[in-house]
Amino acid sequence: MSKVKNRIKIMVGSTVYGFEDQISQIVAQLNTLGYEVLNSHFGSIKVNPHLSNLDNCLNAVTECDLFLGIIRPYYGTGNIGDKNITFEEIKKAIELKKPYWFLVHRDVVFARNLFKKMKLKSGDEIVIEDNKLFDKRCINVYEYVIKNHVKDLALRNGNWAQEFYRLDEMMVYINAQFTNKNFINEVINQTNSNDGK
Questions:
Q1: CATH number at residue 33
Q2: How far is residue 141 from each of residues 66, 146, 147, 178, measured CA to CA in Å?
Q3: Are the C-beta atoms of residues 115 and 136 closer than 8 Å to each other?
Q4: CA 52, CA 36: separation in Å to the nearest integer?
Q5: What is the pTM of this model?
Q6: 113 within some domain
Q7: CB 64 within 8 A of CB 9
Q8: What is the pLDDT along the chain (197 residues), one digit of tens a residue?
Q9: pLDDT at position 1, please?
Q10: Count of domains in the chain?
């Protein structure tokens, strides 16, 4: 018989800056649906003062049962050397085979398609100097999530990233995924049985 968790922990990735109000509404909705939400902006992840922000966020990924990632046109200020906290959280969730869902801002999808078509006459790549407009590294995150590196489309599983532009579009997706607790428990149990737990 399937094991049912009473209080499921869902982590909402740490992409925050510039849309704190939307993160607050997403966290509130997930709380209303009965989840325990882990999110750095919300202040609900455990912070070990002896660890870096990156390590504390990665520990939250390890602790959660589910992961909700949000890919936006801004790479974020949570950069430590070559590492970005949001991207590292995403990679960790996938590596740990956590059940995950992703939302991607329409501008990231649009820019990816646009940059594929645009080259300088010399053939060189177009370089954007001011990343306040758009940070091309967001496309790397999106391509990682959709498993662009897996060339055979038939072998791509778990590569759904739901495009959004407005908060209400995000909420439609969030409600569709997380309202039915039987579905979520089935996903968790399937994940656990696939891992041999």
A1: 3.40.50
A2: 19, 9, 10, 23
A3: yes
A4: 23
A5: 0.87
A6: yes
A7: yes
A8: 455 556 899 999 877 677 889 999 999 999 999 999 999 989 999 999 999 999 999 999 999 999 999 999 887 666 677 788 999 999 999 999 999 999 999 999 998 888 877 777 787 777 766 666 677 888 889 998 988 877 777 777 788 899 999 999 999 999 999 999 999 999 999 888 876 44
A9: 43
A10: 1
Residue 87 lies in a domain: yes
Model pLDDT, residue 131: 60
Predicted pLDDT of residue 98: 96
Pairwise CA distance, residues 132 & 30, whole Å: 30
What is the residue-wise DSSP string for the chain? -----SS-EEEEPS--TT-HHHHHHHHHHHHHTT-EEE-TTTT-S---TTS-HHHHHHHHHHH-SEEEEEE-SS--S-EETTEEHHHHHHHHHHHTT--EEEEEEHHHHHHHHHHHH---TTSPPP----TTT--THHHHHHHHHTTTT---GGG--S---EEESSHHHHHHHHHHHHS-HHHHHHHHHHHHHHTT-
Order of strands across the sheet that contains 162-164: 36-38, 9-12, 66-71, 100-105, 162-164
Residue 126 lies in a domain: yes
Does residue 196 fall inside a structural domain? no
- Structural domain harbouring 177: 9-186
